[in-house]
Amino acid sequence: MRILIIEDEPKTGNYLRQGLLEAGFRVDLARTGPDGLHLALTESPDLVLLDVMLPGLDGWQVLQTLRGAGKDMAVLFLTARDQVDDRVRGLELGADDYLVKPFAFSELLARVRTLLRRGKNAENPSRSLRVANLELDLLSRRASRAGQRIDLTAKEFALLELFMRRRGEVLPRSLIASQVWDMNFDSDTNVIEVAVRRLRAKMDDDFEPRLIRTVRGMGYVLEAPS
Ligand code: CA
Fold first, then answer.
1. Taking the model in full, what pTM does it have?
2. Å from CA of 83 to ligand 1 middle
3. 170-196 pLDDT, tens per residue?
4. Residue 175 Cα, ligand 1 centroid: separation in angstroms?
5. Which of 71, 87, 126, 210 would bridge with 66, disulfide CB 3.0–4.6 Å?
6. Which CATH number fits domain 128-222: 3.40.630.30, 2.40.50.100, 1.10.10.10, 1.10.3470.10?
7. Mean pLDDT of the region 6-16
8. Rounded to the nearest 10 degrees, what angle do helices 105-118 and 10-22 cross at?
9. Distance 94 CA to ligand 1 centre (A)
C-alpha cells in the first residue's frame, strides 16, 4: 500500500514518513501543495495524508483538484485548527476523514488502516458514526438517538464524536480534556465530569441501551452492551 504525505513542516513530515515506513507502507513525501498534487495525480497513491496549510496550493485546493480529476483515493486531512468549519469543509470537498494536530501516531495509524481497509467501493461511512441506535452525522453536525434528533452544543458534539470514534476504549479524563478542550491538566477534572453528565442527560438518560459508562478511577467508555 502506498501513502503520499503532503506536509510542509519538516519535523512532522519526517516523523510521519518514518512511522509509516516502519509500519510497512511505501511512502512518498511532498512539501508543497503543487508537488503534492503532482505526485497524487501521477503516482495514484492508495491514501493521501494532506496538511491544510501548505505553500503554493493549500490542502483544500489540492483536494478539490484531485476529486475534480476523478481521483478517488482515500484522503485523510490533518488540521492544526480545531475548527468545526474546517472539518466540515474538508469532508464536503471529499476528504474521508480528518485528524486534529497534535495527534498520537497510533491514532493516525489506526485511521489510515481503517481507510485503506474500507477501500474505494464503500460509501463514505466516515461521514457518519453509529453505535447501537445512536447516530452522529459529521457533515450536518447532527446527532440522533433512535431516530430522534438531539440538540448538542459544539463541545458536546466533539465530546460525543470522540467517544464514538473510540468506542469500547476507556478514555481518561485527561485525554478527553486535551482532545476536546485543548487543555492539559490532571487535577481539575470537574469540567469533564460536568460536561459528560450534561451529554448523558441529552443522549443517554432517557434511552435504551445506556451507552456511556463511568469506569471508576479511570474515565469513561462508550459502548453498546453485548
Ligand atoms: Ca502546514
1. 0.57
2. 15
3. 998 888 887 787 666 555 568 889 999
4. 24
5. 71
6. 1.10.10.10
7. 95
8. 60
9. 19
